[in-house]
Amino acid sequence: MFTLILGPMKSGKSLELISHVSPHEFSDKKVLYVQPEANVREQGIQSRAGISAATMRVHSLAKVPKDFDIIGIDEVHMFPVKDATHIDNWLRSGKSVIVSGLDLDYRAKMPGIIKYIYQLKPDRIVIKTATCDVCKKYDARFTQILRNEKPITSGLPSVVPEDGTYDYQARCRECFIKQ
């Protein structure tokens, strides 16, 4: 089974990932959670709802040991595009893969690895939305990055780790500011 969970910041992607993977922890299957080293917000998968899971942190999916049956990958958009080939190989070998990440960057552009993962044809795609941090409507589909309360629309890389340098907001279509 191959599940892709996408959405903006604060939409519950990590919670959804844990809810898909954690029931398998009680089976006879070997379960592994993975997260990019570039994710500096927390250690392990930490949902804003307070649910967490211990993870293996790696720079590349090439470093993931092959002895698992089910893998949950958080913040997949932070991995290099070429790492999607590992997901493809795991699927071809019969492993279950559940991934979550941002579907669009701060410019409303799809990260390369997400494009590649779409082309692998997930069995299930879950699209999450959040509450807009500006107007408070539950229809936020975009992630806005701000510095000193001013939206940034260009000049940053596609992946900007949440390290305290910038503020991140979930925004609806009407409140999202594009370049």
Tell me what portion of residues adopts beta-strand conformation: 25-35%
- Determine the number of helices (DSSP H or I, runs of at least 4 residues): 3
Mean pLDDT across all amino acids:
92
Q: How many DSSP E strands? A: 11
Cross-sheet strand order for the largest sheet: 5-2-6-7-1-8
Span between N and C termini?
A: 38 Å
Structural class: alpha/beta
- Detail the poorly predicted runs: none
Order of helices and strands: EHEEEEEHEHEEEE
Largest sheet: 6 strands, parallel
Helix fraction, binned, reads 10-25%
Shape call: globular
Tell me the Rg in angstroms: 16 Å
Summary keywords:
single chain; 179 residues; six-stranded parallel beta sheet; three-stranded antiparallel beta sheet; 11 strands; 27% strand; globular
What does this structure look like?
The longest helix has 9 residues, at 13-21. The strands form three sheets. The chain has a six-stranded parallel β-sheet, with helices on both faces. It has a three-stranded antiparallel β-sheet with strand order 10-9-11, with no helix packed on it. With 179 residues, it is an alpha/beta fold. The mean pLDDT is 92. It is globular. Helix content is 15%, strand content 27%. It has helices at 13-21, 84-92, 112-119, and strands at 2-7, 31-36, 45-46, 52-53, 56-58, 70-73, 96-102, 124-127, 142-147, 150-152, 167-171. It has three helices and eleven strands, in the order βαβββββαβαββββ. A hairpin with a 5-residue loop joins β3 and β4 (52-53).
